[in-house]
Amino acid sequence: MIKVNQIRSLAHAEKLVSIDVAGFVVARSSSTSALDLDQCRHLGSALDCSHAVHPVDGVGDIGFCREIIEELKPRYLEFTVVDPEKAESSLAQLQALARLKVGKIANGLFLLKDDLSLLDRASHMDALVHAGVELFQIEVESLIDPEFGIGPKARARIGEFFSRYPTIIGDSFSKSVKVPDMHQRGHYLNLSVDSGRSYDFSQRHYALSSALRIIKGLRTDPAENT
Is the pTM of this model over 0.85? Predict the structure, then answer.
């Protein structure tokens, strides 16, 4: 599975026909970093794949989320996970998710060489699954780049984690597309946007030309086809 996010133009959409999931960021009014519903509908019509729609104000605006589901009929509603240590906000998010009857993708998650705390949050991950999350979008630093390489013991834990929770990962794809099989379901890339900041707080984003080159490499890598 390959997911590309922050698709903003028909020129992007027309060149991304081979992807499996198209990610759109939407708001009630369009901006440099978000589409409105009509723009999203127009771009989505050019991509015959699953669509994931991320409302910029999260699932707290449940009325707008329901409008998205009714008007755009996406395969997934996407959202940024609230830190479970913020107990009240986290509970409110879980309750809102449970009220939205659509598949969901959770983003804003990270596994770093010096911070693997996500691996210890099984109870929160289980709660997210119970609330309808079908995919977890996780940025990893790194299974590819030796400078930030995650060690063998941690990799074993990550493999077990990905086996339990269906995950798509982002990594240093500009360095290599030789991604080891850690039981991930696929990979994701964020296209660069004018604001410079990725919608899911990821540090990595790619020009369309680079993304197309990476997608081609991932498609020909044996790990992508297992």
Answer: yes
